[in-house]
Amino acid sequence: MTAPVTVDAPPSPLTAERLRLAYDDRVIVDRLSMAIPAGRITVIVGANACGKSTLLRGLARLMKADEGSVLLDGQDIHRRSTRDVATRLGILPQQPIAPEGITVSDLVGRGRHPHQRWHRQFSVDDEAAVMTALDATGTTDLADRAVDELSGGQRQRVWIALALAQGTPLMLLDEPTTFLDLAHQVEVLDLLAHLNETEGRTIVLVLHDLNLACRYAHHLVAMKDGAIVAEGLPAEVITAELVAKVFDLHCHILDDPLTGTPLVLPVPAGHRGAA
Amino acid sequence: MLLLRSGWTKGAGLAGATGLLVVIGFASVAYGSKSIPLSVVWDALWHFDPGSNDHLIVRSLRVPRTVIGLGVGAALGLAGAVMQGVSRNPLADPGILGVEAGASLAVVVAINSFGVGSLTGYVWFAFAGAAIASVVVYTLGSMGRDGATPVKLALAGAALAAMLGSITSAILLLDVATLDEFRFWVVGSLAGRDGSIATQVMPFLLAGAVLALGSARALNTLALGDDMARSLGQRVRIARAVSALAVVVLSGAAVAAAGPIGFIGLTIPHVARAICGPDYRWVLPWSMVLGPCLLLLADILGRVLARPGELQVGIVTAVIGAPFFIALVRRRKLAGL
Amino acid sequence: MVAPAVAVRRRDRVLVLRSRRLGWSTRVHGRAVVVGLAALACALAVFVWSLAVGDFPIPVGEVIATLFGGGSRSTRFIVETLRLPRGLTALLVGAAFGLSGAIFQRLARNPLASPDIIGVNAGAAAAAVFVIVIVHGTSAQVTFGALAGSILTALAIYLLAYKRGVSGYRLVLVGIGVTAMLGSVTSYLLTRAEIFEAQKAVVWLTGSLNGRGWEHVRPVSLALLVLVPVTIAMARHLRVLELGDDTARGLGLRVERSRSVLLLAATALAAIATASAGPVGFVALVAPQVARRLVGGRSLGLLPAAAFGALLMVAADLVGRRLFAPTELPVGIITAILGAPYLLFLLARANRVGADA
Fold first, then answer.
1. Model ipTM?
2. C-alpha–C-alpha distance, residues B137 and B91, integer Å
3. Interface-testing mutation among C230, C239, C251, C254, with chain A (most A C-beta atoms within 10 A)
4. In this predicted model, what pLDDT tens digit does every residue of B100-110 receive, in sequence order?
5. Which chain C residue shows the shortest CA-CA distance from B314?
6. pTM greater than 0.80
7. DSSP-assigned letters across all residues of B308-337
8. Taking Cα atoms as reference points, which of B298, B243, B224, B242 lies closest to residue B268?
9. Who contacts A130 (Cβ-Cβ below 8 Å, separation ≥6)?
């Protein structure tokens, strides 16, 4: 069940080993093992409530595993100090909360927390990181505006800027595009792809849109009922049978004429019945 | 604590709880600070002998007391449930609208400036004070573009309650005699409440109950948020105003009859929700039945345990209710709304 | 020492102070500083005024002279033994309440949050009334009892709410239960007491600075001396906690630990303040709100909240003393009468209130 990586690939920075995650008595993920490929974009897809967000939270140590372990750079993630982990791994959860009246630059600045100390509250490095993050997300003009005045797309870019400012080689994002229009979705994903290419950051995303997932993922993971059904290159993973199995959706798969990645075409209701 | 899921079990449970209430009601008539044999109690109810002291106790003290306890308990439970629904805040209680603060101030003024000394005298003052305070709170909370949002209502209520409380304290401190009377009223008690108070207050309790039970569906819709409710055709402002009116009438009447009794309005709806879920068509009747169960039970214990005297119900309610409530909070994940 | 590089960003008015040599840096929000200092200046002005005013009026010039060692024997007695400790207690208790309320409101992300939630008021009240009515204790014993009461209550609530961690909601609900029980006990004690004891108890319950002396100033100033630096040190943790538990953890914050420390600090502040002056809880509600609206969204406004708390308290005490002279109205009454209308005014003016309007 491990990813089909090439022989000379670098070791996986983040792995799950026989992970079991549960809320009270409800087991969401059971005996799941997975290795996030280094320096690549991994996208996790699956139907609603299949456990993708839970898995991401478990990987980001936001949840304690009942059984199994999560290894960050080969070490048990729970054994490292929280601050230490935060310098290696950053997570952008779903629906983050912005305090009332906070400005963009202030919010992005808070992403520097793992690098700050009581006597070093805003160093030159911090300032530079914030500037770079704002620049990379195209939010420099919004720096002095209040976050709650911004549109959904702008707000999401600000949150990504926060994650960027944190400066971690590993970035986990839980549905970062869910409330964005298509143009902004593409913009955000292009930004993440750019970061991956130029800085070699390892990125793990949960996405809903299968087609966008296929376009941007180097490594695609399809989940159902808390277990991994298939993982690997999008072209290998996404087949009509898999989509039917994981999403309960009747579809045709084409090759995207622009990128060559799989393009999922759901079959309209009227056309079903044909074999 | 079971979570009853189907309508059948909820209905059956409600019937069961009502049965329990009847039993408790009878116990309230049967037991008290004076130990009276059950046969005598039975006789007092059906074969009344005006010459017998015990019969008098049962008929003119315990029965009205039980009836008022039923009414007040039901009113407080209902008012609390409606208040939490209207304000979409599971931590709301009728006191938020300033009901208790207004009633207290009115009673203090009655004692101090008008020399009123009887319970029946307090009733109308308390009711008026409660009503006026709530109207002021509601008006203040509605100012501004978005009307009476839950947060604004709560802040307005807290501010006004603090102000009224200050004036009340000021009068109490300036006049010792007033304090001496007020400190017994403010505890909340069913003692000494006779039939005349019951008749004065019952119409309001009934009217309030009708209004409250009638707003069950509106509360369900309001719980989805103002926008969603509007899109479902709910007239949000009117629904909120009507519900608030129900709360004021119910809690105003309850405070007028028995003095301020806290805890019931806040916690009974949580228990009801833990049993039957967030549908107000069930939460309201359940609150209406569980409220008096707790109140009468507290009253009985207060009379029986402190023989030959008695412990006021306002004191006992929290003492027996709170541990149970805390246990419930620990065991279950209490539903938000 | 290399001269610190100071960066000032326009419009945001945030001052960044850095020393490259030491690797130290900090940020100062201009508006918060201005508002805080202004409030403090007003508080001090009212404080000095309160020293001058009374049944024996003393000209302000003489008051200041007395503070610096001069003045006649009688003015020294009046100022140093009677009015100075009272005024200082007012300032310090107000600051403690304001700061405590600000922390609670930020932690709970709710403008209605106040130390009452953790049962500080109810515990202090029950204990104080017990000491007054049953033990017939001295003022010092009442203070001590109140402190013990609030700490034990806060502890009890925390432990009862603890179930593999403390969720805010469970904490509040348990707090409600325990507060209700203690309220019952207090009411019971009041009905059982002799009327004059009851009167004394009610005075305490309203919140009063009458007869507060140096023995009250010391504990509160000690508490502030310890807890204000702790709060300042934890401020940056609070800023991250505000972003939600998941994001905070993702940024490397030990969420449970930071929250507990902040809760502890806020509770201790409220407990000591309540023990010294009674439950003048309204200050903890209003002062942070006022500070927040004047300071804007960029700063946590913790110290301005303390300054406003001090101002409200010392002003309310002065009004209470003089308005119906020679009768004194306890400070707790005036804080609500002063604070509530202002809160309502802010409410009416604002278009959006609180974090979750």
1. 0.81
2. 18
3. C251
4. 889 999 999 99
5. C184
6. yes
7. TS---HHHHHHHHHHHHHHHHHHHS-----
8. B298
9. A105, A108, A109, A111, A112, A165
